[in-house]
């Protein structure tokens, strides 16, 4: 049971760090504009060596930002609950919370990345001929996988704890 909890904590920790880096950096998409390379993230875009804040209130950027922030909060709460469950004698309730929080996190990241992917491919992909997704975007997908597996590890730890509790004689 503790190996599953340790694996869950490790995956959640790495996934949360990757998620924060992906959310904060501005390399979600790279493209060529007027002969020079440019890149953009959720908060700013860079043309050449100059970066500018994205001041337009475009719905898909706002939705992607909101879901990424919500997922960061869920992941951080899941890590805290996971540490509490790991440090204390695991009660069934404390072992169940990190699983739910990390699965909510995965759902929010999936929504954010799906919205960003859909709009980028359908709208921005046509606007910029020579473009590609960049490393910040890829880190978001890796963070999704890491925290999804963290939730799976906590689910396995919960099942093992539940089976031991039911098999002990009263």
From TrEMBL:
UniProt keywords, alphabetically: Membrane, Transmembrane, Transmembrane helix
Pfam families on file: PMP22_Claudin
A GO term from the CC aspect: plasma membrane
Single GO molecular function: structural constituent of eye lens
Keyword Membrane attributed: yes
Signal peptide start-end: none
Transmembrane segments: 66-95, 107-125, 137-157
Predominant location category: membrane
Keyword S-adenosyl-L-methionine attributed: no
Classification via InterPro entries: LMIP, PMP-22/EMP/MP20-like, PMP22/EMP/MP20/Claudin, PMP22_EMP_MP20
Subcellular localization, as worded in the UniProt entry: Membrane
Membrane topology designation: Multi-pass membrane protein
Family: Belongs to the PMP-22/EMP/MP20 family.
Protein name: Lens intrinsic membrane protein 2
